[in-house]
Amino acid sequence: MEWGTKIGIFFACSTLPLYISGLVPACVKVEDIQEYWRLSPAEFSAKAGTPIGPGVWISALGQSDNLAALPVLFFCVLPIVAYGAMFPGTIKSRDRLYALFMLAEIALIILAFIGFV
């Protein structure tokens, strides 16, 4: 978990300079971002010309402002990996309630990722 946190922080710190510098094209330019702060998702989508919906952000990862989703995704996957490593030991020790909570949290993370929750 510690190495994963360090990798995630590195990714999070490396995406912001890409956005600010303009090296990678952005959906919303840095100088225009204040115009979008108070908009609802539907208003933002209409003004920026971006689609909304589950999984749509994956197609927008080529834009630097959307690239910030990768560290968030990484931090969401990290607990799944950790639980996956702990799950066999939990089953072996017959701690079924903890195993059930682990599975429920994994399911919730996956449902949130696909936009269901």
Helix proportion range:
55-70%
Largest sheet: none
Secondary structure tally, helices: 5
The tally of strands reads 0
What shape does the CA trace take? elongated
State the end-to-end distance: 25 Å
Q: Which percent band covers the strand fraction?
A: under 5%
Rg (CA only): 18 Å
Ranges where pLDDT stays below 50 over 5 or more residues in a row are none
* Element-by-element helix/strand order: HHHHH
Please indicate the count of domains: 1
Look at the structure and give the mean pLDDT.
82
Q: What does this entry show, briefly?
A:
The protein is mainly alpha-helical. Helix content is 63%, strand content 0%.
Supply database-style keywords.
117 residues; mainly alpha
Describe the structure.
With 117 residues, the chain is mainly alpha-helical. The chain has one domain. 63% of the residues lie in helices and 0% in strands. α1 runs antiparallel to α4 and α4 packs antiparallel against α5. The mean pLDDT is 82.
Topology (SSEs and partners):
Elements: H1 2-21, H2 41-48, H3 56-59, H4 69-92, H5 96-113
Helix pairs in contact: 1-4, 4-5
